[in-house]
């Protein structure tokens, strides 16, 4: 069976084929549609940044203080010792500061490549601790850190969006800067695990 296609006669045929009205084809309508799409994208990026950044920052505060349910610096140092790290309180302070600072920068959308690097770095360290347990989070695996690392790669690629302090300051980061920041964070996290590990055979 052969299909018959309607003959297009000027704009009338085109309108009948596509189902678009003259108003929908107008540049003004197209611009309004694009504007709504951009606003939704910015809202989505802002939500992602604030939620992830806020939670990561909160975990950093927990590592060094008793706020937000944290056990204080002594508990943070003990946690790193049990995970096979040396350095004691200094390691806990460095990790907590990186998490809190990187999370706040990410939430604000300021110095985004640096924020991406900080969060990706601490999450890479967390992933190395959980690798022996496999992927899935129910087995204490590295699923959650992996999701956050990939989220940092995505934000590094897209940028923080217009609802950010980078935009307010007129800073336009190229995608390469964000991706480089994420890569630097991952490599830095692996190096940190290697240097601070008490077990020489650790990843």
Helix percent band: 55-70%
Radius of gyration: 24 Å
- Note the overall shape: globular
Number of DSSP E strands = 0
Overall tally of structural domains: 1
Q: Terminal Cα separation, in Å?
A: 63 Å
> Which stretches are low in confidence, meaning pLDDT under 50 for 5 or more residues running?
1-32
> What does the main sheet amount to?
none
Instruction: Report mean pLDDT, rounded to a whole number.
Output: 83
By secondary-structure content and strand pairing, the structural class works out as mainly alpha
Summarize the structure.
The protein is an all-alpha fold and 203 residues long. Helix content is 69%, strand content 0%.
Task: Give your account of this protein's structure.
With 203 residues, the protein is an all-alpha fold. The chain has one domain. The chain is built from 8 helices and no strands. The radius of gyration is 24 Å and the shape is globular. The termini are far apart. The N terminus is likely disordered.
Question: What is the topological layout?
Answer:
Elements: H1 10-18, H2 27-64, H3 72-82, H4 88-108, H5 112-130, H6 143-158, H7 165-168, H8 175-196
Helix pairs in contact: 2-4, 3-4, 4-5, 5-6, 5-8, 6-8
């Amino acid at each position: 069976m052969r299909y018959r296609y309607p003959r297009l006669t000027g704009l009338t045929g085109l309108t009948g084929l596509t189902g678009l009205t003259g108003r929908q084809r107008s540049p003004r309508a197209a611009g309004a549609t694009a504007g709504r799409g951009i606003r939704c994208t910015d809202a989505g990026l802002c939500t992602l940044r604030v939620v992830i950044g806020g939670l990561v920052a909160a975990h950093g505060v927990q590592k060094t203080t008793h706020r937000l349910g944290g056990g204080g610096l002594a508990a943070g140092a003990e946690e790193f010792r049990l995970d096979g790290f040396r350095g004691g309180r200094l390691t806990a302070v460095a990790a907590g500061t990186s998490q809190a600072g990187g999370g706040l920068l990410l939430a604000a959308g300021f110095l985004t490549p640096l924020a991406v690097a900080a969060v990706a770095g601490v999450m890479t360290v967390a992933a190395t601790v959980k690798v022996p347990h496999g992927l899935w989070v129910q087995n204490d695996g590295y699923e959650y850190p992996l999701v956050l690392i990939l989220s940092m790669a995505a934000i590094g690629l897209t940028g923080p969006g217009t609802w950010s302090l980078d935009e307010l300051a007129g800073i336009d980061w190229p995608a390469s800067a964000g991706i480089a920041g994420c890569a630097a964070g991952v490599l830095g996290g692996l190096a940190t695990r290697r240097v601070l590990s008490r077990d020489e055979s650790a990843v």
